[in-house]
């Protein structure tokens, strides 16, 4: 049993793609303080939730870090992912991993996530991944900004990850919670944009 549990995890300093065309590929993780890739177990659950929506989807991986979520989406058939990350070190490693995978449909922007949302003109996105640094407590503001800028497509989904001990983020009225789970010290949620009434 212990042996099986060990194979379920990525190696220290490396990240394993769970499924899709790059299944089991190991990617290096940049040595950046506070960088915390979404665990393999959580990614597996989240992408099971997203399975009916991922094929051909336009995705945004905000606060991308390692790019684990956006790369998993591309591996599973997403059309494209925009990766937004502030750390130059994390961006360099992400670009190296994208080149190593020969990942088409990936674009990387080195900038702050909030700044991107204020300036973004390349939406709407079918899927948005929001996993900001836990200590920053950014989710509520980022969700409101995402809604204000109408960067989420009708019935588009947002994945949210935060520290379990924090209050759940204030969500825009036009969003509804589809899934809400915890694992260890992590709360992770899937929410959806309600269809807009014209």
Short descriptors:
alpha/beta; Rossmann fold; two-stranded antiparallel ribbon; 29% strand
CATH superfamily: Vaccinia Virus protein VP39
| Helical content (DSSP H or I, runs of 4+) | 25-40%
Evaluate the radius of gyration.
16 Å
Report low-confidence residues grouped into runs of 5 or more: 1-12
Alpha-carbon distance between the two ends = 55 Å
Mean pLDDT: 88
Shape: globular
Secondary structure: number of strands: 9
Strand order, sheet with most strands: 5-4-3-6-7-9-8
Order of helices and strands: HEEHEHEHEHEHEEE
Strand content: 25-35%
What's the CATH C level?
Alpha Beta
CATH architecture: 3-Layer(aba) Sandwich
Could you please describe the fold and organization of this structure?
It is a single chain. The protein is an alpha/beta fold and 198 residues long. It has one domain: Vaccinia Virus protein VP39 (Rossmann fold), CATH 3.40.50. The protein is 30% helix and 29% strand. It contains 6 helices and 9 strands; from the N terminus they run αββαβαβαβαβαβββ. The chain has helices at 2-7, 40-54, 68-75, 88-101, 113-119, 139-148; strands spanning 14-16, 26-28, 58-62, 80-85, 106-110, 125-130, 152-163, 175-183, 186-193. A 7-stranded mixed beta sheet has the order 5-4-3-6-7-9-8, sandwiched between helices. A hairpin with a 2-residue loop joins strand 8 and strand 9. The chain is globular, with a radius of gyration of 16 Å. The termini are far apart. Residues 1-12 have low confidence and may be disordered.
